[in-house]
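pinging the channel bc i need a second pair of eyes. not urgent but kinda urgent?? the chain im working w is below, pasted from the shared doc
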Amino acid sequence: MASLEQTLADLRTKIQRYRGRAPLNEENTKGTLIEPVLRALGWDVEDPEEVDREYRAERRDRPVDYALLVTRRPRLLVEAKALGCDLRDRKWINQIMGYAVVAGVKWVVLTDGDEYRIYNTHADVKADEKLFRSVRVSAPSALLASTLSLLAKDHLQENRLEVLWRAQFVDQQVKTAIERMVRADADNAVVRQIARHTRNLTDAEIRDSLARCRLALDFPEVVDPPKAIRGKRRRQDGDSGIRVLPGKIHRAASQDVTLRTLIGAGLLKPPTDLVKQYKGCDVAARVEEDGSVSCLGRTFASLSLAASAARASVLGIRSEAKWPATNGWTFWRYADETGTHVELDVLRKGYAAATAAQRQPSAS
């Protein structure tokens, strides 16, 4: 099997040649440009237990081009477009985000065989800010091979994407904090700190100087995990020689997550509208500031009680003793940042998985 570097060099020549001819359609792009990269990254493209083509989480779902599987579970989705397609178009971003939400997958890749855009769908930021990194095969750089290698089978098992995303997230937060500090309306503490390290400057002079300041911060792309974050890497499948299905860990941990937990973490911002189409009828509820749920003019202590009441209203059941037992987490849906309606259980499991990753000791 060709190395990743050799594969990228060969594809660079092909991309240059194809751009001067009639454009490749999506199917030819997948076979000619994308699948060679997947093979070079260690994926057996011919094995559906590793690479599931036209993957559907449920039979009724629209398919995504590739799901990369670890222990037969989708770890990353790849959506392909024809060579030359504008991948910055919001409709493509929303499309792949929607696929990921339905499948409960955190990492997705949008590619036209030349550009590769990697997104973290669970990041609690706007859709455009979920972009982790973008590289082009036709524009070689120091980051090209290192970025694509994060999609390799062994690196997905080690969860390197998660670690490097965290480093990038920290850098962005620090950058924003510094930029906010160094501005005309800077906090008095910042002005005093500057005055302490300078001579004979008044507070007014320092503020005037900050107003003229144009600060440029340069945080290099992280290739290796920083020490502070490397120490938090969670134990992965195979570290101890015991293979564990991560889904089972997440399901167990998610049982302890409540609406108040998600509200406190900033993942839900009440009042949050909930919807559900049940037996052809649209029912609605709302998560309140205190974590209670309003539905049908009443306030319920849990999602499940509200869901049972909603179902009973559709079924015409008046006696509360006969309300159907209902899992409110899988019943109710909310609108995420992209406007896609998602089961609350997806949000709960995502939070539980992220929390478990932070708590697990590093493998040493």
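so The longest helix spans residues 160-181. and The chain has a mean pLDDT of 81. — does that match what u expected or am i reading it wrong
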